Amino acid sequence: MTASDTASDAKRHAVPRQFPWPRLRWSEDTGLIVVFVLMVLAIGIPHPEFFSFGSIKTILRQSALVGIIAFGMVYLVAMVEIDLSVGGIFAVASSLSALLIKFHHVDPWIAVAIALLAGVVLGGLNGVLTSVLKVPLIIVSLGTLSAYFGLHLILSDGKAIYGLPKSHPFFQIFGSDLLQLPASVWTAIVCAIVLYFVFAHTRFGATARAIGSNPAAADFIGVRTGLIRIYATALVGFLSALSGVMTLAYFKAVDTSSGRSLGLQVIAAVVIGGTSLAGGSGTIVGAALGVLIITTIDSGLVFYNVNLNYSEFVTGIVIIGAIALDRIAKRRRAS
Fold first, then answer.
1. 6-10, 189-193, 210-214, 252-256: which has the minimum mean pLDDT?
2. Structural domains of the chain, count
3. Which residue stretches of the chain are H helix?
């Protein structure tokens, strides 16, 4: 065989050059975006007022207050943990800061700092109790949820707190709009960016994912699982308190029922967003989409004149559906 024959044979059997054209891939986030858009159209087409700027701004504000906490919850769920007490911490932070401002005449900036510190302590306490008692965080937080709500009622004496200094810069800045959007929305955007970077590109985020992926292996290589859990619960406590004081800044008052259904909304947003309950992974972007979907559902119930008592029922059904889809996807990947 000559060299020319070899060359022609190689040319004949050569694999055609594949140009690196980008290929679109159907991802979980893409599916969530489609679901969200369809929901918006299903509500907005029959009710055009849904597309008003005021309505959109309200949905974004409500989403932001839930999203701030949900972004932190992604870390815990990625570690196969769930904190049920976020609503209690939210309530304590808002009532504590309001109490200090109104009855003890503490400067709002200092009162808010104290409330945020209290959130870190209460959240961290969940992690400490989990490590000491050797039980899952969901069990510990079930108890602290009741304790924290009880503390909230003690601080507020079971009454609404109002009459706060609305002219103070804290309320003027964080209770108003910036560039036509509520300050809470900008706060949520900053939190999302920072927490995404930490989760995806830092050692702490990688360690949290590793613990959820294989706790035994993490312990074997010397990862201080208990300490990482305390850091994560303290982070969620801080974010819960931040959401609480942001809510206080907007409403300038605290209600005794504050934060009651917040934990359910946060968990729903994280699970719907695609963070697997099996641990090892998480998505901040998905959590943001999950929050928007939950808030849009609540808004849709209002526009369709559905009794608001159905809100938690619908949210619960959506959570069950999201868990079912997560399990089905896991089984398909395993097979």
1. 6-10
2. 1
3. 3-13, 28-44, 53-78, 86-103, 108-133, 137-156, 169-174, 183-201, 203-213, 215-220, 225-251, 262-272, 284-303, 311-334
